[in-house]
Design brief:
The protein has about 180 residues and is mainly alpha-helical. The chain folds into two domains: about 1-80; about 85-183, no CATH class. The protein has seven helices and no strands. The chain has helices at about 1-25, 30-55, 60-80, 80-85, 85-110, 120-150, 155-180. Helix 1 runs parallel beside helix 3.
Length: about 180
């Protein structure tokens, strides 16, 4: 019962924050960020609704961490323009994003898998591989956007390399954290 209440509360808070970010994005006429916000919001809310009805019960801390990562990306990174104000912000967010999405994705896989993995080394490898793979997919996505829309998500090879290194760090830290905190 407490989980469903926490899930609904988390969904409402995320919804209100997203609405305010969207209003701000419209006021600043950053319409490309508006589409990004809406797509992310619909995806997350769809997952949360499915989770509510199918009792998927992904750890609320991990869900909140994912939502916090998205909030930091949309509000601080895009709306407040910190991706361009600080080179360290992007690196920090890649570490945090890899950390939160690695564990989140692992928990989803763990819920749908027929057998639970108990070996710490396997869990370490799986979580690390998930995070590194998601980070690589994100870099390909950024490259594709830059190629098609002529945006500036990637600021050169050095930026991309630091993004990849940050993704690896976040993924490995996530794996270590999960092994120490959960297993």
């Amino acid at each position: 019962m407490w989980y469903n209440t926490a899930l609904i509360l988390t969904s409402l808070i995320y919804s209100v924050i997203t609405i305010f970010i969207c209003i701000g994005v419209i006021a600043k006429k950053k319409y490309n960020f508006l589409i990004d916000n809406i797509i992310t919001y619909v995806t997350i809310i769809s997952f949360l609704v499915l989770q509510y009805f199918y009792h998927f019960d992904i750890n609320i801390f991990v869900l909140s961490l994912v939502l916090l990562t998205l909030f930091i990306h949309h509000f601080i990174g895009q709306y407040l323009n910190y991706y361009y104000k600080s080179k360290y912000f992007d690196r920090f967010l890649h570490i945090l994003g890899s950390f939160s999405f690695s564990i989140f994705s692992y928990l989803i896989l763990e819920k749908i898998a027929s057998e639970k993995v108990y070996s710490k080394i396997y869990v370490f490898i799986i979580i690390s591989a998930i995070g590194i793979s998601l980070g690589s997919i994100l870099e390909i996505y950024e490259f594709t956007l830059d190629s098609i829309k002529h945006s500036k998500n990637q600021k050169g090879q050095t930026d991309t390399n630091f993004d990849i290194i940050s993704n690896i760090i976040g993924s490995i830290v996530a794996a270590i954290f999960y092994i120490i905190a959960v297993i």
